[in-house]
Fold this sequence. Notes:
single chain; alpha/beta; Rossmann fold; 2 domains; five-stranded parallel β-sheet; three-stranded mixed β-sheet; 12 strands; 50% helix; 8% strand; elongated
Amino acid sequence: MKTSGRIFPVSSQPEQPDSESESFTKPSRQTSESGYKPSRRQSAECISDQDRLNRTRLVEALATVLSGDNEHHQTIGLLGDWGVGKSTTVNLLKQALWARREQQPFLFGTFNAWEYEHTNNLQAGMAQEMLKALSSYPVAPNRREGVGGGTREHPVKSALAPLVWWFCVRVPMMFRFAVALHGPRLLVLAGLLLLMVLNLSWHDVETMAAGVMAAGTGAQMVMGGGAMVALVMLFRQMKSLLAMPLAKEWMTYLKLPDYGEHLGSIPVMRKQISALCKVRLNPAFGRKKRLLFLVDDLDRCGQEGIVKVFEAVRLVLDIPQVTVIIAVDQRIALAALALHYQALAQHHRLSNPQAIARDYLAKVIHMPITLTAADGPAIAGYLESIWQETSGAPGSPSATSKPLPATVADSVVHPAVQLGLSEQQKQLFKKWVQHFGFSNPRQLKRLHNSYNLLRHYYGEDGQFSVGESSTLHALTRDLGSPMLITLFALEYINSLDDALLRARLLRLVTAPRQRSFREEGDAGMVYVDPTGKINDDVLQVVGSRFADGEGSMVQAVEPFVLPCVIQDDENGGPGVGQAAP
């Protein structure tokens, strides 16, 4: 088993290209697209506050259901591959619910499972995030998540509103929570505190009672202290009675057992969270509220961490007016649960760990939603948003109009520099994204950033030379960005699920002229790659070499591609990162 990737972009002793082999030619200033340079700004990995993948229809439908007459607990499973946009979809849902706050107010909370994975007590972390969500001043989701500017408010209002909320909402909530949790004991304590405020003590009461009794019944009636005297005398008699050994024995028999101290902290936390939810979501004045609580980044945890988080989620299950969203890659969650229940499978009626894992999720998740891959128009729009973010468009921090420095050799006046991709390069980018079937937003961002860095490292992407034939030039005009095509081809290979197919395709792209007899011709290419992504055109490009002797195209681009684990194929072919023999 090997890992793909190289230590340095080019070979120290590159092989010399054959006289008949194709080559990559770096464009001169006259042949390059005028005025376009690679951007100095990369596309950031962050939660977006804009719908770039056509999720609005799903978000609006879900917001309508959640804001309806549903006060019972709900657990929603938001499923989808890594990078498909689960966190962004939840953020859009929060914005939709916030826009409906006049119809149904919502509070929002988030538990990042990855951050709490290695803590001593995951349940305590989840309880802490619930407490933060229930006791914090409510703000718009885009302000809370830091993904947008939100609506601007007057600075004085922004400063005073949390303070007013603290006194008018949080302080009363704390008293109501204490009463709900402790009840009669708190009332007794309040009575004692009242006596302290009145500057009275039991000694003062006894002295007053003795004086009243010495003054006679008339004085008692005048002072109205008869009830107080009786209460004091009763308290003293009960205290003396309970101090007797026989009374202590009787109390032992009459006392009910209490095992709460042996249960640990989990039941205590659940009781407290349930009481706080009841108080905060059902205020004494105003409308009832609901809580949307997100469990995010669960699929970034290890196998044991995933299982522990699912166990911790039980802390907030079945609490009315609370909706929990578990955002997770279903493949990772099912695999982790199946591995956890593997030993149990042989003793279970299902006798299959994968079936047990699905049955477990069915008990936790009430409403599953799987985010599907984006369609072609959505992908095109998403790419346009990336290019607008990084191209230096008006209003962008990377915008520039700095001209190229003039040289003596240059008699041509060049226009202002524009950062990013030209229209032709954008069309090629979209064309090859569609060809290789890339649809994951995170993957598209990574490919854009890698290609941008390649252009910085090697210079502008050049032209692919196919000789003097104008016919060949016409047939291969879509091959005008060899670094881009090679980058996409290696990403496609490294992302394949079939390990043997990955190894076979890698052997082919690292040594395209060493095909076996079985791999020649159209039928052979179907054997090599059944999906048809690695075709003769792609092999022609990735098999080319730099004209200035910097090694092969694959050697140059491979260090900028996310690596993967590779197995040798059935013919003993090399894994990624090894040269073909």
